[in-house]
Design a protein that fits this description.
Elements: E1 7-8, E2 11-13, E3 16-18, E4 25-30, E5 35-41, H1 45-62, H2 67-83, H3 85-96, H4 100-117, H5 120-123, E6 128-133, E7 136-144, E8 147-151, H6 159-170, E9 174-178, H7 185-197, E10 204-206, H8 211-219, E11 223-229, H9 232-244, E12 248-252, E13 257-261, H10 267-279, E14 289-294, H11 297-311, H12 332-347, E15 351-354, E16 372-375, H13 382-385, E17 392-395, H14 401-410, E18 413-414, E19 416-420, H15 424-433, E20 438-441, E21 453-454, E22 457-458, E23 461-462, E24 467-468, H16 471-475, E25 477-484
Helix pairs in contact: 1-8, 2-4, 2-7, 3-4, 4-6, 10-11
The chain binds nicotinamide-adenine-dinucleotide (NAD).
Domain Aldehyde dehydrogenase: 21-482
Pfam families: Aldedh
Organism: Sporosarcina ureae
């Protein structure tokens, strides 16, 4: 029996909540109970085009506000994020399924990127050269682009939208956020907090929707830039359509992240690091470690024995169960797809060290999976090649560090990787030779802090420009370079017209 009232959500446009007009809705579920908790409006092309028009008006005003005044709003927004952390964490947990403590962690990482964006006055400073020739001074400035959009995935309902959009607004753009239709609630809370912080109407809008809304954003001529985060298949399609429509596009996709464990590494440390990095958030992180690559049979046997023991102690439970290490996966389809990957891996010859397909849980209707560990996985198996977005993790055994580096470099993804070792020389070889965008050494999840750039290589990212750090400023601005000369009043130009190319 349905226990919760099903809310009908809205968009947030031009400073107010706006009901959906398309007549199309998506269902939002609580993955911990399987209950439908809300209906989210799915915007039509016409609705999206209307938001773009209003955002364009918002941009006209906001881009003229001094950067100091813009940053005042960011300071207030930051304070409100801190004040509303519990409320946001509950909203994330309820519709995403991650534990409250994990959700709180994601909000903290989001706040880091607000801290960085508060430095916009410094980051927007251009370059200036005096007397580049003929008493001409040359300087550059970073101008906002106009209306920009962020299209977000379900797995970080607050961190990704905040990281993607705050700098965009700080540098003077107007933002349209298209959250995942699976987790729309926290984006509406963020919109409310931006308004309360004093952001003028039209500068930060939320349009809910699915492919139709995304396509409308990608084809509207007044959308200047698209920052997308999601699966590789959609990231590639968004990149292609967006660039074809002359937009600046950065599209972050999926990953298959490895932890290499050297024979000299401390096995207990490596196992503990693997547990959190691999199974945290039910493995639904783009930077989750999916593959352990122990080097040498002895290392592998010791690592798998200890890991199996610990994996069987992990507790999966409701998002607000304080004892739970992680919660359910996002949907019944996601659960079925993870089970299918495990079944196929066993058929292909992988050895099941821990089986999480039938967990004992309090609520049978939730989308729970306990941790699964598959040993002796080989590179021809599907479970090695594809991103599995759920708690089924694998072990691939190799004999040397070089073999580990080669197989990671051959993989189509290149998001994150980490090495556990006590050897400086191994670490140096690894960090130098590995073809991956975010690299750790004795760090479980090498996700960069808010003031460093974030982004994968290969098919984990399409387009240029990274998230988080200084690249965000470059992505959301265009550079103008001015060459300027001023004559004094007594100036009398007696020179002839010069037809040669100017030089200093
Ligand atoms: P997804 O690709 O299904 O959805 C992402 C966004 O795209 C959503 O807003 C969705 O509404 C929209 N969308 C879905 N299908 C579309 C289509 N056919 N055309 C246009 N838009 C479409 O991804 P998800 O399941 O929400 O998120 C999980 C994926 O995101 C994983 O693959 C994960 O690795 C990846 N991810 C990557 C990063 C990163 O930084 N590289 C960060 C977080 C998540």
């Amino acid at each position: 029996m349905q226990k919760t009232e099903v809310k009908t959500l809205t968009h947030f446009i031009n400073g107010v909540e706006v009901e959906g007009k398309s007549g199309r809705f998506g269902d939002v579920f609580n993955p911990s109970t399987g209950e439908k908790i809300a209906k989210v409006p799915l915007a039509s092309t016409e609705e999206v085009n209307e938001v773009v028009k209003l955002a364009k008006e918002g941009f006209t005003h906001w881009s003229k506000v001094s950067v100091g005044k813009r940053v005042e709003v960011l300071h207030k927004f930051r304070a409100l994020l801190v004040e509303n952390t519990d409320r946001l964490a509950y909203a994330i947990g309820e519709e995403n399924g991650k534990t409250i403590s994990d959700a709180t962690g994601e909000i903290t990482r989001g706040i880091e990127s607000v801290d960085f964006a508060i430095g916009a006055p410094h980051l927007l400073k251009g370059e200036h050269s005096v007397n580049v020739g003929g008493e001409i001074n040359s300087y550059s400035m970073h101008k906002p682009l106009g209306v920009v959009t962020c299209i977000a995935p379900f797995n970080f309902p607050v961190m990704v939208p905040v990281a993607m959009s705050t700098m965009a607004v700080a540098v003077g753009n107007a933002m349209i956020l298209k959250p995942s239709e699976k987790v729309p609630h926290s984006a509406l809370i963020l919109a409310e907090l931006w308004s309360e912080a004093g952001l003028p109407a039209g500068v930060w809008n939320v349009v809910n929707g699915d492919k139709e809304a995304v396509d409308a954003l990608l084809t509207n001529k007044d959308v200047m830039a698209v920052s997308f985060v999601g699966s590789t298949k959609v990231a590639e399609a968004v990149y292609e359509k967006g660039t074809k429509n002359h937009k600046r596009v950065q599209a972050f996709g999926g990953g298959k992240n490895n932890m290499v464990i050297m024979p000299d590494a401390d096995i207990d440390t490596a196992v503990n690091s693997f547990l959190g990095a691999a199974y945290g958030a039910a493995s639904q992180r783009c930077m989750a470690i999916s593959t352990a690559i122990p080097v040498g049979e002895k290392t592998a046997d010791a690592f798998v024995a200890k890991l199996t023991e610990k994996v069987n102690e992990l507790k999966v439970g409701k998002f607000d169960d304080q004892e739970a290490d992680f919660g359910p996966v996002i949907s019944a389809e996601a659960k079925a797809s993870v089970i299918k990957s495990i079944d196929l891996a066993i058929e292909e010859g992988a050895v099941l060290a821990a089986d999480g397909r039938n967990p004992k849980v309090a609520d049978e209707n939730g989308y729970y999976l306990a941790p699964t560990l598959l040993d002796h996985v080989t590179t021809d198996m599907n479970v090695y090649k594809e991103e599995v977005f759920g708690p089924a993790r694998i072990v691939v055994r190799v004999n040397t560090l070089e073999q580990a580096i080669d197989l990671i470099n051959e993989h189509e993804y290149g998001n994150g990787v980490t090495l556990y070792t006590n050897s400086g020389s191994a670490a140096r070889t690894f960090t130098d030779q590995i073809e991956v965008g975010m690299v750790g050494v004795n760090v479980p999840i090498p996700i960069p802090v808010g003031y460093h750039n974030f982004g994968g290589w290969k098919r984990s990212r399409f387009g240029e420009g990274q998230m988080f750090g200084p690249d965000t400023v470059r992505f959301f601005t265009k550079t103008k370079t001015v060459s300027e000369r001023w004559f004094d009043t007594s100036y009398n130009d007696e020179s002839k017209t010069d037809f040669d190319f100017p030089s200093s």
